[in-house]
Amino acid sequence: MLMSTEESRGLLPRPGYRADAVAASAQGAPEGTAVRLAGRVVLWRRMGGLIFGHVQDRSGRVQISLSRDDLGEELFKEWSRAVKIGDFIGIAGNLYTTRLGERTVAVFELTVLNRTVRALPDKWQGLSNVEARYRRRYLDLLVNAESRDRFRTRAKIIQRIRRFLDDNGFLEVETPILQEAASGAAARPFVTRHNALGEDFYLRISPETFLKRIVVGPLDRIYELGRNFRNEGMDSSHLQEFTMLEWYAAYWDYRDNMTFVRELILTVLDEVLGTRTVTYDSVKLDFGADWPELDYRGEIARRTGIDLTVIRDLPTLRARVAELGIDVEDAASYAGLVDLLYKKTVRPELIQPCFLVHHPVELVPLARRSDEDPTRLDMFQVVVNGWEIVKAYSELIDPVEQRLRLEEQVELREAGDDEAMMMEEDFIEAMEYGMPPMCGLGLGIDRFVALLTDAPTLREVVLFPTMRGIRKNQTGPDHDT
Fold it and tell me: What is the CATH number of domain 142-291+353-460?
């Protein structure tokens, strides 16, 4: 933080330190400029009658020096003993450049603002355990510049997405996380007890049906960016608590959203990363090239020989999939088995950005059937690196057909499919008041950020991912375990 010469004449300590722009304060100012700054000590090294240290804040770090000749023996000893690595200090001093060319602040005032009572981990050895990095993210951020940069990039990506939507006439809204029914996606929900109401609620698996309720009113371009919760498996591309962006636009169809989301993604790449080519796990992903359209059922047929336009019942499909050596026991429905087949045989092979289109109608009960072929949906996904980044479709707006499809979901739940959707009478009632034609889209923020920052797992792009609880007998931090 660079202050004027007149301001720097004030005495330290005084309230109101602003620890912003530590690194910037040492750049570009003339030799001898007086500065006042505050930050955390991350290096403190005595060399005879000199002490060199580094002070760090969110903007970076700057070197400081203390000289016995300038400060006198008594003050030099006092400050050399008073400060240790990890402490927060405020200093005043004058800028100069060392013989090695490093901009440095020669300190003439120093105040310890707060002390650390635990030793910080060694930069190279002290936080080597991955779980320790996630559980104590504050230490990871402190010693790992790559981690700090990744979360800065995440923030910039989200800021640019919001600005893109705002500039295109979308209004940001919020919908409930506690919901009476688990709907909007095929997923197993979390259940929680609302003590005041004396009822069980579900953590939302998707905001979809509430966002559609809003579009019934005159707010016909809306988006929400927030947390969803799905009580299912965890791997490098799945978390039970994750950030999802959803938007809905009245009078759009899925083709409009295909154009719009590609423009959004390219805008983020251009303005945040400065490139349309991203390297992920040593593989170059070219977002700037054409994104081919691949037919969902056609890709399955090409890779497995199973024609989903012909095989439309669960027993026949189960037998054919089992012939491929795929375990079909966990697939409780036709839709679930189709999804499993796709995820095992097609999705891992889709590396470069592409649109996957025309999914079977059984897969999404909230999506509109195609006029050209009622057995498929007006729907697409964006798949990159074998990950689904985007799912979108023209919305079903007929309340009669919607009730029938949700009733089929209820039957599946009663038959043991705990990922099937629940009936939502309030949602059907909203549809009966009249819903405009529209298209909605969901974009997984965590996966998108992971791809753009070359993060090997989603837990690298979430500040505090859910971890197994620390047992009561495990007291005190161990940076290596």
Answer: 3.30.930.10
